[in-house]
């Protein structure tokens, strides 16, 4: 047996995978060859060391385990409101929408002071400064909205009349077929805007 072949059999010998004739032949070669015998002893020592490490590893104590676990960062607890938001996405979206509408409407209501008139028959109206006048001989068909101004009705309105943040005056000759709304407070303003928003969305 040559040395190269003997070295190739050493691992199988240590694992008890060689047949009896091969074991005897390798043992005879190791007795005759000092280099292979020296190499085999080193290989045997390494194999025993690996076996010792894998089969006799020291088990960590409970105290060490607790200290290591204590050093690990603790998972953050979710706040109650975050959990509620995750469980109720539709209500959260609706609430956010109302908050945005509230602040934007209050901002608009508090800052905008320009006269705004909405009517399908604008040419029948008389506007003097911040006052919108419906003359006695005029009939306005459809809704009329006056924002940030005064409305003086002497004629007829065949629709709804809404006055926002202003004043409404109706003469004895006035006739309004629809509803009359006089909005001069922030909450009324907000409710009016939100109602109109949903009404417009329903008819689109």
How does this structure look, described?
This protein is of the alpha/beta class and 204 residues long. The strands form three sheets. It has a four-stranded mixed sheet, with helices on one face. It is built from seven helices and eleven strands. The chain has three domains: 3-55, no CATH class; 76-111; 113-203, no CATH class.
Quick description:
The chain is built from 7 helices and 11 strands.
Q: Could you outline the blueprint of secondary structure elements for this entry?
A:
Blueprint: H1 3-14, H2 20-32, H3 34-55, H4 62-71, H5 80-87, H6 89-111, E1 116-118, E2 126-128, E3 131-134, E4 139-141, E5 144-147, E6 150-153, E7 156-158, E8 161-164, E9 167-170, E10 175-176, E11 180-183, H7 186-203
Mean pLDDT: 78
SSE topology string = HHHHHHEEEEEEEEEEEH
What kind of oligomer do you see? single chain
Shape: rod-shaped
Biggest sheet record: 4 strands, mixed
Tally the beta strands. 11
Instruction: Please tell me how large the radius of gyration is.
Output: 48 Å
Going by helix content, strand content and strand pairing, the class is alpha/beta
What strand line-up does the widest sheet have? Answer: 1-5-8-11
> Helicity range of the residues?
40-55%
Low-confidence stretches: none
Strand content: 15-25%
Distance between the termini: 97 Å
Defining traits:
204 residues; alpha/beta; 3 domains; four-stranded mixed β-sheet; 7 helices; 11 strands; 52% helix; rod-shaped; Anti-sigma-W factor RsiW; transmembrane; transmembrane helix
């Amino acid at each position: 047996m040559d040395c190269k072949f003997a070295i190739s059999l050493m691992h199988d010998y240590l694992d008890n995978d060689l047949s009896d004739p091969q074991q005897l032949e390798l043992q005879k070669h190791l007795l005759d060859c000092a280099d292979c015998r020296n190499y085999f002893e080193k290989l045997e020592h390494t194999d025993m060391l690996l076996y010792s490490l894998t089969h006799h590893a020291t088990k960590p104590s409970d105290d060490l385990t607790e200290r290591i676990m204590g050093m690990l960062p603790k998972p953050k607890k979710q706040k109650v409101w975050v959990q509620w938001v995750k469980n109720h996405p539709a209500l959260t979206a609706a609430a956010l929408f109302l908050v945005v509408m509230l602040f934007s409407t209050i901002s608009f209501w508090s800052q905008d002071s320009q006269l705004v008139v909405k009517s399908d028959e604008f040419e029948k109206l008389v506007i003097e400064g911040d006052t919108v006048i419906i003359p006695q001989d005029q009939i306005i068909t459809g809704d009329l909205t006056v924002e940030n101004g005064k409305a003086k009705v002497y004629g007829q309105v065949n629709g709804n009349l809404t006055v926002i943040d202003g004043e409404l005056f109706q003469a004895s000759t006035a006739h309004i077929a629809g509803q009359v709304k006089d909005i001069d407070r922030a909450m009324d303003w907000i409710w009016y805007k939100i109602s109109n928003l949903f009404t417009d969305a329903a008819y689109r």
